[in-house]
Fold this sequence. Notes:
Oligomer: heterotetramer
Largest sheet of chain A: 7 strands, antiparallel
Shape of chain C: globular
Mean pLDDT of chain A: 93
Structural class of chain C: alpha/beta
Largest sheet of chain C: 7 strands, parallel
Bound molecules: flavin-adenine dinucleotide, flavin mononucleotide, FE2/S2 (inorganic) cluster
Largest interface: A-D, 50 and 63 residues
Number of helices of chain A: 6
Low-confidence stretches of chain C: 1-8, 329-343
CATH class of the largest domain in chain A: Alpha Beta
Number of domains of chain A: 2
Amino acid sequence: MSASPVRARVAKEVAEVIATRRVGAYQHLTLVSPQIAELARPGQFVALAVGDESSATLLRRSFSIHKVSPSGTYGGTVEIVVSAVGPGTRWIVGRQPHDPVDVVGPLGKAFPLPTEPVPCVLVGGGYGSAPLFWLSSQLRERGCHVEMVLGAASEDRLFGVVEARRSCDGVTVTTDDGSAGHRGWVSDVLPELIDRTGAGVVYGCGPMGMLRSITDIAGRHGAVAQVAVEEAMACGVGVCMTCVMPVVGTDGQTRMVRSCVEGPVFRGDRVRWDAFEGNHARVPDDAVGAPRAGGH
Amino acid sequence: MSASPVRARVAKEVAEVIATRRVGAYQHLTLVSPQIAELARPGQFVALAVGDESSATLLRRSFSIHKVSPSGTYGGTVEIVVSAVGPGTRWIVGRQPHDPVDVVGPLGKAFPLPTEPVPCVLVGGGYGSAPLFWLSSQLRERGCHVEMVLGAASEDRLFGVVEARRSCDGVTVTTDDGSAGHRGWVSDVLPELIDRTGAGVVYGCGPMGMLRSITDIAGRHGAVAQVAVEEAMACGVGVCMTCVMPVVGTDGQTRMVRSCVEGPVFRGDRVRWDAFEGNHARVPDDAVGAPRAGGH
Amino acid sequence: MTDQRIARPTDDRIDLSVDLGFGKVLPNPLMTASGCAANGAELHRFFDVSELGAFVTKSVMADPRSGRGTPRMAETPSGMLNSIGLQGPGIAAFVDTDLPWLASVGARVLPSIAGSSSTEFAHVAATLRASRAFEAVVGVEVNISCPNVANRGLVFACDPGASAKVIALVREQLPRDVPIFAKLSPDVTDITSIAAACVKAGADGLTMINTLLGMVIDTDLMRPHLGGITGGLSGPAIRPVAVRAIWQVRQAMAEGRIPVVPIIGVGGVRTGRDALELVAAGASAVQVGTATFNDPTAPVRVLHELTDLLVEKGYRRFSDVVGAAHGSPLPPRPVPVDERSRA
Amino acid sequence: MTDQRIARPTDDRIDLSVDLGFGKVLPNPLMTASGCAANGAELHRFFDVSELGAFVTKSVMADPRSGRGTPRMAETPSGMLNSIGLQGPGIAAFVDTDLPWLASVGARVLPSIAGSSSTEFAHVAATLRASRAFEAVVGVEVNISCPNVANRGLVFACDPGASAKVIALVREQLPRDVPIFAKLSPDVTDITSIAAACVKAGADGLTMINTLLGMVIDTDLMRPHLGGITGGLSGPAIRPVAVRAIWQVRQAMAEGRIPVVPIIGVGGVRTGRDALELVAAGASAVQVGTATFNDPTAPVRVLHELTDLLVEKGYRRFSDVVGAAHGSPLPPRPVPVDERSRA
Ligand SMILES: Cc1cc2nc3c(=O)[nH]c(=O)nc-3n(C[C@H](O)[C@H](O)[C@H](O)COP(=O)(O)OP(=O)(O)OC[C@H]3O[C@@H](n4cnc5c(N)ncnc54)[C@H](O)[C@@H]3O)c2cc1C
Ligand SMILES: Cc1cc2nc3c(=O)[nH]c(=O)nc-3n(C[C@H](O)[C@H](O)[C@H](O)COP(=O)(O)OP(=O)(O)OC[C@H]3O[C@@H](n4cnc5c(N)ncnc54)[C@H](O)[C@@H]3O)c2cc1C
Ligand SMILES: Cc1cc2nc3c(=O)[nH]c(=O)nc-3n(C[C@H](O)[C@H](O)[C@H](O)COP(=O)(O)O)c2cc1C
Ligand SMILES: Cc1cc2nc3c(=O)[nH]c(=O)nc-3n(C[C@H](O)[C@H](O)[C@H](O)COP(=O)(O)O)c2cc1C
Ligand code: FES
Ligand code: FES
């Protein structure tokens, strides 16, 4: 948490919803948010306030940026894909065109792009694919061969299959129930894909269990995993210390780092997956400042 | 608070807003609320919930019933007139046609109607006139001569001048700033009006200060005052004891009575106006169960 | 003594019955909260009050009381402040009118009693016992969160000694088979020590929590908003404090620091899910207070929501859920892992 | 010593300056709340942190600390629960990196220090004093709402003796002209006795309140939601408790039971009106905590809203408003009576 005075620029703006449409199990919203659209890069996220001043729901909700259009008819727009799972996301999917939404962003670190044109595999679980199409375009601009794997529990929870075909060199779909593509998990198809494409980097976004297995597989098949995590966040801007995860630093030491400012993208092999259990993460005993027996 | 098993029927229903329009400084809403429309009488009120389940605003807001139409095209409707003064009323005036609103009513005691056709004066301060037009019709049906006084700070805060002309035998308007009618207060014109019409009853609805002076004037001019009060209410249905006022009972004893179930209409001369100061009301020393020195 | 009011559970998907001790079995765990439901007639217009496990009445004292001046309430974020000052008809009128009415509609009653001295508590309890409708009483809640005149107005529940004295005196006045519940205040440094003192003095159960002491300033008038200056904070805002208090006391029972007695949970319950939080923390029954002001049907609605939720989770007996978050008993079947959960 | 950081008030409609004692004058009463603003750099992206009266840093202990496992937070009605566990870099890194950075942008700093023993507090204070950027420090907040390892983990602020010992030791380590503020917990039976103990031990002021102990149960998993089981409740939900605590302590000062020292108010402030409530109850300065998570500009926004509100009410000096709800000084001019108020 030591202060680093130079930080990426960030904006807070009241955005107007200009489009909202159902896509399978999700809602795809387009927000007029020129400053954020100007600054964002793939892998970053936005945090939306829920309700008005008299809302009992104080904390912002975070969403990966699906796409930005820095200059549209209405000014720059930011798009997000939302799965309604609780009161906050239900409120957000209920917004209508012209409704205002208070947005802060772009937040967090973007996916690092390779300096050389190496083959890449992008893996998205459920709405986790949302930021990957934009990433794919940037990778292909740099000459990378890009293949994508989209996985979900069922067909309605896949996002962007058509867009994937447009923006990638190859697309593989998996569903748990076989309602679309291969029946099974992304981890079933990933090893062959890395080997076939000779991928140097595997980018992943989705549930933690999936990111862990992507990391394992990438490591075993000679690729680097870059994963975008999802940890419960109270502020999204680095001031509350709720969103921490045990991550190994360049000095080899494990620290509880803030996934909102030092993530959400981490190198998979830096994350201490051994500390996770269900939705809890322990502080590993060897972490810097970990509680000692008899101490705190 | 002793239990009286027989009580008027009351309903809780999710009403649809079918019309909402600006009237001067107020918003006039029409709600489809068939059960309440069926049961209500003039002087009763409804209590509206504010926001959805995740609203921080837990308590209902109370509004006099302006009008009911027990069977319309949409089913029975209830109309209210709302002055936006704080978060709850701002939310209510922001409702659009087809929005749902959770309503409980009819609540409280109605204006008692005279058994003989005596002349009556109805006095409304600001939106306090809302329930009086309906009352006027019922009084005239019973053969009473009805005159109305409408008073407000300024013209935009008068409600129902046109409707008054239609539903009464005579109308007098006063405004503090002279922007409409007589410059001054309703109390300036009331004495003459009682004397001229020979009114037996003065009905009042408006701010407490006005109700007090109506009571004084009616008493001095030989009329009975029936006033509808406005006390902050947490429940509106008689269970919380927040809405109490010192009122003299038929046994001559003062008690802190619930204005939501034993009011909002009280005989003016029963209210212990001497106990009020600003928005506070003391418990008079002679009230039943009043704190004793050294006691509670 | 067979008591008609001790009804059997009616939902055939799950056994909702709650045993308060001494053969007092309630058909379900839902109750009104004292002071948030008056004495029954008002809510009976919205639902049949005998549907509830028990009806908790407004705390009653020896004599009629006017309560405090107004304003008596202020709305606060997700809650409210009240300073009613225990307005009520006095115990004589209560046993004459309110209790017989509740008995007549078939309600199981948990009268709440209060006093400004321990002898006043004892007098109220004795009058209650002598009442003709006493058979409707399934237990007595002793509201010790009120000021003790003998001790500079310090609330009884803030002092273990004063609390124990009240409980012991009330216990003496009531038949052995009528359980008494000490209602605790959260405004203490260590609620387990107050709980322990009450149980040791004869409380057969505990009700937690009463309101938190709070205050609102009217910034237009620049003075305290309430006539009584301070007031009690209630509503969803305080639910985390209620859950914590219940958890701590239940934990102390598990560790043998307090004898095991049933806990009635209260504080911020608005939905079935909220009620489940209190139950999982250790409450054997749940009261709905402030939420009733938002929705006069809240106590029965919460009952139905809680029932549906438990059935959905696969529970067959309500008693299996009590204290489940302490690790024992474990939930009967694994919870489906959705997209959001990790690993 | 003339300190560049002690800026003059800038709003020419009203004198907002706040005197913390010993010549430490702040240009305005708004501050961040410890642990809700990290150490400055993150919020400096949204506004200039030197605009605030003072910047309160995350409580720092002697050594680096990892804090607790996750989940560390739960949203609650109009509030949240946190169990961070005082994660931080340790005082050496703080004085090396964070404090100099705050000094470099011109912030007036109120570092918050913590310890698991009174000697740890003293060590942290001594290291702070020795730091090269110490001139940026306008006072030190002593977070005694943390567990005392020597006393079975009981929070220092729950015990007058333990609180006094920490304060006395910290006071010794710091120059006389640097005021120290004891940050109190509301989870006590009588906050005035803790306040009195702190002031008598050398506290030059008090910060009230820290979070309330609370808990949330995850009803999907049927276990405590937080990794740390219990957590601290904060946000608008607790504002009435903060107002009450400030009122009580200020009242005790008026009655001579506690020497008069400035109070820094904190708890549930989201708007300028909220801040005014705390000020009218007796706070000389106001911190904005959880509201910052909703709006990263909240501390300055609240400053502007409060300023406008006071100007609108006709005040010329902020200091006239402090404690105004106690009746003295009276508001400078009558408030317009609107339609809603009763004659
Ligand atoms: C960096 C990041 C990117 C995300 N991108 C997307 C996206 O593109 N599309 C999408 O649908 N969702 C995304 N999420 C998850 C989304 O933020 C949560 O589903 C949402 O916050 C849940 O709010 P709720 O009120 O509906 O649910 P509740 O469960 O009621 O929320 C309660 C509290 O827990 C927090 N919370 C609950 N679940 C999560 C979660 N999975 N992650 C973080 N906080 C959580 C909420 O913020 C809130 O504070 C992302 C989360 C993060 C951290
Ligand atoms: C029987 C009755 C009839 C009423 N009829 C009307 C009407 O026809 N039209 C109309 O515009 N208003 C009417 N009012 C007043 C209306 O209820 C309040 O203006 C409204 O509750 C204010 O809510 P708010 O959130 O906007 O304001 P806030 O001031 O923020 O409200 C805060 C709290 O105080 C209570 N409160 C504040 N002012 C009043 C008040 N004057 N009376 C009662 N409670 C108050 C609110 O219910 C809420 O709990 C009536 C009130 C009562 C009791
Ligand atoms: C208006 C009001 C009056 C209350 N009166 C009493 C009372 O007489 N006796 C009592 O033990 N508790 C009383 N309480 C406290 C409630 O019974 C309950 O303990 C508290 O409000 C917390 O629950 P809730 O959040 O569900 O309201 C009262 C609460 C309110 C809001
Ligand atoms: C996430 C979080 C972390 C906190 N960390 C600290 C801390 O390190 N030291 C401290 O004294 N208070 C800490 N607090 C308490 C706040 O400073 C403040 O006293 C409390 O949250 C009430 O204010 P609020 O309602 O404005 O948040 C923390 C609060 C939160 C929400
Ligand atoms: S969410 Fe607050 S520090 Fe990351
Ligand atoms: S408003 Fe609750 S009793 Fe009248």
